[in-house]
Amino acid sequence: MQAIENIQLAEIADTLVSLCTAFIMGSIIGIERQYRQRTAGLRTNVLVCVGAAIFVDMAFRVAGSDGASRVIAYVVSGVGFLGAGVIMREEGSVRGLNTAATLWGSAAIGACAGADLIVEAILATLFVLSANTLLRPMVNYVNRLPLDTEASEITQLIHVIAADEQRQEAMSALQSAVEQGNYPLAEIEVSPFGPDEVQIEATLMATAVNSKEMDKLVQRLSKNAAIRHVYWQATTAE
After folding, report:
1. How far apart are CA 211 and CA 193, in angstroms?
2. Which of 110, 116, 205, 225 has its CB surrounded by the most CB atoms within 10 Å?
3. How far apart are CA 235 and CA 204, in angstroms?
């Protein structure tokens, strides 16, 4: 009988408005993501938005505003796990952060709709959509600018190629040069490089660096008889 008593037309109409708002706002964001061929497209953003709205609206009906506040906190953490699933690490770079952030925004929009904050949900949709569209030309412009290694916080990689039998001598020379330059060393990896050579890759801590100093360090290492080839590169990947 409780199920029958819970059928209140006014409350059902309120829920319908919340879910419709979440569906429409999630679709607007999802269409843009689908057009860009992102991992989380139309259906994912709609489901996240509508799901958040359902949880918040249900909490309001069952436990009032206090219960809704607690559910919203759980929605935020739950969507965090979902967003982590679309973040991928490929060849030293991280992809999917923007998609994960968009899912987080979709959940926030759904929570607004579930809390009957319809105007707020619409405004949030406009801002999320603007971040993914209007800011794109600015991001593309900045990405095309030359990398300023002295002003940017970047990660430096030093690559040393040496004969397999001279691995230890080359590694010692590399570590000594890094210590003399007071560069914080994060890790060193050794991997095969051809039939009789190895590649020693030293990763320095992310910091602002003077490229001229790195060039001098490479020049000193190139004079070591155990090292056949050495070069350094800067990367923004963390």
Report:
1. 26
2. 110
3. 11
Do 28 and 126 belong to one domain? yes
pTM (predicted TM-score): 0.60
Task: Tell me if 53 is assigned to some domain.
Answer: yes
Distance in angstroms (rounded) separating the CA atoms of residues 196 and 198? 7
Claim to verify: residue 29 and residue 120 sit in the same structural domain: yes
Residues 234, 148 contacting (CB under 8 angstroms): no
Q: Return d(Cα 143, Cα 149) in angstroms, integer.
A: 14
What is the identity of the amino acid at 230? V
Give tens-digit pLDDT for 105-152.
999 999 999 998 999 999 999 999 999 888 888 877 776 766 555 555
- How crowded is residue 55: how many other Cβ atoms within 10 Å of its Cβ? 20
pLDDT digits (tens, 9 = 90+) for 140-182: 777 676 655 555 556 778 889 999 888 888 888 888 888 887 8
pLDDT digits (tens, 9 = 90+) for 24-72: 999 999 998 888 887 778 998 999 999 999 999 988 888 887 878 888 8
Q: Report the amino acid identity of residue 3.
A: A
- Domain boundaries, position 13: 2-144
Per-residue pLDDT at 218 exceeds 80: yes
Query: What angle is formed at CA 130 by the lines to CA 128 and CA 135, rounded to 5 degrees?
Result: 115
Longest dimension (CA), the chain: 88
Q: Could you give the 3-state DSSP secondary structure of residue 209? A: coil
Grouping H, G, I as helix, E, B as strand and the rest as coil, residue 163 is strand
Give the DSSP H/E element, type plus range, for residue 169: helix 167-180
134 plus 222 within the same structural domain:
no
